[in-house]
Task: inverse folding
């Protein structure tokens, strides 16, 4: 019985096929951005300050630094560190990284997950929407027909879907 238990605990929680599919997805994403001359970056996962977004909770960790225990935090998103790189003149950048959210765990929600984040200085909103659709198309080509973005203004989306002008609606209507 102990041999059976030991062999079961040694098995990965994910199938080899899923690992291979994820590796292929990462290759596809990296090729997509390489073709567009967007640089892959890697930023720190641990920081001295937690997130300022009131709707996100940072995972706290204790680290021993120079003999002292210090409270630090795992990133909820690479946004802050990546924007520092942008401010320093990095140009277009992307990152595939682990992020962590405390107090967010459920059947369809994990407190640790992988995030793709990218920044494209110089692209306007419409160009970024089309780039997002292009990325989805190359990543999901084997599963779906071509994805074409529906381009609506904020005002038009409300008028078209809810018959409300959000710029003139009352609080009760909203």
Result:
């Amino acid at each position: 019985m102990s041999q059976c238990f030991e062999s079961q605990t040694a098995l990965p929680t994910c199938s080899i096929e899923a690992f291979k599919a994820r590796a292929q997805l990462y290759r596809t994403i990296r090729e997509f951005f390489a073709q567009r001359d967007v640089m892959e970056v890697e930023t720190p996962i641990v920081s001295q300050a937690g997130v300022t977004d009131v709707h996100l909770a940072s995972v706290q960790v204790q680290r021993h630094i120079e003999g002292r225990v210090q409270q630090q935090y795992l990133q909820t998103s690479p946004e802050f560190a990546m924007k520092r790189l942008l401010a320093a003149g990095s140009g277009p950048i992307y990152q595939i990284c682990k992020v962590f959210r405390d107090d967010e765990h459920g059947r369809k929600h994990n407190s640790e997950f992988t995030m793709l984040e990218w920044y494209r200085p110089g692209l306007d909103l419409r160009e970024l929407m089309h780039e997002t659709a292009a990325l989805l198309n190359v990543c999901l080509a084997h599963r779906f027909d071509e994805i074409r973005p529906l381009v609506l203004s904020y005002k038009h989306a409300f008028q078209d879907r809810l018959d409300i002008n959000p710029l003139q609606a009352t609080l009760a209507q909203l």
Remarks:
- Residues 16-35 form the longest helix (20 residues).
